[in-house]
Specification:
Length: 259
């Protein structure tokens, strides 16, 4: 078992997840990345993390595939011998935005299987390992789970309903696991990003540029992966150990719903 704390981050090959992985590496944690992208396609991003002189494990797998989830966890435990933090970041938007009156079952299943079903059962898997770690008197560990939800957890976007439903589900996953795991001293938290500049939002950049300029957020700028990473870092730091199911909105104040 390594002495460093170990953080699993899903979907960390790029975007928000990559920002989170880099920040946790800066904090001194070993990192294990679970992502569907080929290593060769994201090698430069992974090298950026490795350059911080911390252990980094990259596993290419599908979050919706039980065998891939199990093989990843097996590799993490063989390599590191412990799991301290789980950051559920992996997620997708619909391949094509459609009005909810036209949404297809294929698009619904694609989004929900990754964002919600895969996340739920991966969290279940890791949570049971964390419970076993807490019950093992030879391991001193204070594990935590952080879910990356979205302002879409509560905001209606009829042009991508399946995404909104999946993120609302993530917020309930936070509550459920926070409730269930509290007796073991395992805290569960949630970060709700707002308008964050990534590959996912780049396709609607002009729309959000206009909305930000018009004042949809009190803080008039795009958010960036680094903004989300800072919130995750706070949750993992242990500074909020008397809080669970807590939510940090990283959205430029969008949640104020101002008039």
């Amino acid at each position: 078992m390594i002495e460093k704390k170990v953080a699993i981050v899903t979907g960390a090959a790029r975007g928000i997840g990559h920002g989170i992985a880099k920040k946790l590496a800066d904090d001194g944690y070993a990192v294990a990345i679970f992502d569907i992208l080929k290593f060769s396609d994201v090698k430069e991003n992974i090298v950026q993390i490795k350059e911080k002189n911390i252990p980094v494990l990259y596993f290419q797998g599908d979050l919706t595939n039980k065998e891939d989830r199990n093989n990843f966890v097996k590799e993490v435990l063989e390599e590191y011998g412990r799991i301290d933090f789980l950051v559920n970041n992996a997620g997708v938007a619909p391949k094509v935005r459609k009005d909810i009156l036209e949404t297809t079952e294929e698009s619904y299943d694609f989004v929900m299987d990754i964002n919600l079903k895969g996340t739920f059962f991966f969290t279940q898997k890791i949570a049971n390992i964390m419970v076993a770690e807490k019950e093992d008197n030879e391991i001193e560990i204070e594990p935590k789970i952080v879910n990356i939800a979205s302002s879409s957890s509560y905001t209606s976007s009829p042009g991508r309903g399946e995404y909104c439903i999946s993120k609302a589900g993530i917020s309930m996953i936070t509550k459920l696991f926070a409730d269930r795991l509290a007796e073991y001293g395992i805290n569960v938290y949630e970060v709700r990003p707002g308008i964050i500049y990534t590959d996912m939002t780049n396709v609607v950049k002009d729309k959000y540029d206009r909305l930000i300029d018009e004042g949809i957020t009190p803080i008039k700028r795009w958010g960036y992966p680094e903004d989300i990473a800072k919130a995750v870092s706070v949750f993992c730091s242990g500074m909020l150990d008397f809080s669970t199911a807590e939510v940090i909105n990283v959205d430029g104040g969008f949640h104020l719903r101002r008039l």
